[in-house]
Write a structure and sequence with these properties.
The chain is α+β, with helices and mostly antiparallel strands. The protein contains 2 helices and 2 strands, in the order αβαβ. The protein has one domain. Helix 2 links the parallel strand 1 and strand 2. The relative contact order is 0.29.
Length: 60
C-alpha cells in the first residue's frame, strides 16, 4: 500500500523502512541503529539521478 502511495505521489527518492508506525528510525534510544537508517537515506542522495520515483527498501 505505501509503495502504491509513493508511486502515485512520485517523490524523487523514498526509503521504505520495516518498522512499526511511529518508529521511522527503529528502536527509540538506539543511536547506532538510528544512524544506520539515516545513513541509508543519505546514500539515496549520492545515487546518480534517475527517473523518479526511486523506491528502496531498507534492510536492517
Amino acid at each position: 500500500m505505501l509503495r502504491d502511495v509513493a508511486q502515485a505521489v512520485a517523490p524523487p527518492r523514498t526509503l521504505f523502512v520495516p518498522f512499526r508506525h511511529g518508529f521511522p528510525l527503529d528502536v527509540p534510544g538506539d543511536a547506532q541503529r538510528q544512524r544506520r537508517v539515516i545513513e541509508a537515506a543519505f546514500e539515496l542522495l549520492k545515487a546518480p539521478r534517475s527517473t523518479a520515483p526511486v523506491l528502496v527498501d531498507y534492510v536492517p
